[in-house]
Amino acid sequence: MEKTTQLYEGKAKKVYATADPNLCVVSYKDDATAFNGLKKGTIVGKGVVNNRMTNMMMRLLEKQGVPTHFVEELSDRETLVKKVKIVALEVIIRNVSAGSFAKRYGVEEGIVFDEPTIEFSYKNDDLGDPLLNEYHALALKLATKDEIAVIKKYAFKVNEVLKEYFLKLGVRLIDFKLEFGRLTDGTIVLADEISPDTCRFWDAKTGEKLDKDRFRRDMGGVEDAYKEIFKRVITGE
Ligand code: TMP
Ligand code: ASP
Question: What is the pLDDT of residues 169-207, one digit of tens each?
């Protein structure tokens, strides 16, 4: 399936139409942003890592009963996906305190939670993706009660599957962000990406960060971190 016209360009990906109205092509860029686009840069090779890693995660999750938009990997940077309308909610699951959680609640990073947490942000760049709860999401008609229940169920399932998967690769899954979409018939499926841009990965032995925090925090070694996590995913060790 060939891409035709460009439908959308986001901060890290472009989306193209295809001859089939129910399918799109996603194309991953090396562009990186942080802090709602305030910080901009390039992470060489990121598009390839994020595309291929996302597709491996989507295949794994499908097998474990989480429906996704994934159809077929077309190339290193391009993937055929089912066309969805993205639900305007960013769904964040956390296993360990880090990032905005640590900052908001004034706690250190690295506190292991007894139970994973879930939070939602309103996916709206103009507003800076403000945090909201389920009642706010309903009031804003971002999703229905039933949709939110399904999204929560899938999000926790993704956490269970990925936490175990990454631990086998010597990596702790600290937290991550998911996005969901509606197919034309309204079915909720997992969409967007699962990559070092959207997850925090800490090496289980050394605690080294293997994700986009190296870019956000100017830590250096950004490309190497993406390469290292990708190598583990590819080799399975
Ligand atoms: P946070 O601690 O900054 O709220 O981030 C939580 C997780 O969500 C982390 O794994 C990074 C990911 N994330 C995104 O994928 N996109 C974003 O815009 C933000 C702010 C975080
Ligand atoms: N990609 C997001 C942005 O540019 C933020 C992030 O991942 O930290 O706003």
Answer: 999 999 999 999 999 999 999 999 999 999 999 999 999
How far is Cα 93 from Cα 152, in angstroms, rounded to an integer?
Answer: 10
Which stretch of DSSP H or E encloses residue 153? Answer: helix 145-168
| Residues 98 and 160 grouped into a single domain | yes
How many distinct structural domains can be found in the chain?
2
Token output for 47: 């598009």
Q: What is the pTM of this model?
A: 0.98
Give the HSE-up count for residue 27: Cα atoms under 13 Å, Cβ half-sphere.
Answer: 13
Last residue of a domain, one of 30, 55, 82: 82
CA of 123 to the centre of ligand 2 (A): 12
Look up the domain containing 35 and give its range: 3-82
Pocket of ligand 2 (CB under 6 A): 11, 33-37, 212, 216
Radius of gyration of the chain (CA): 17
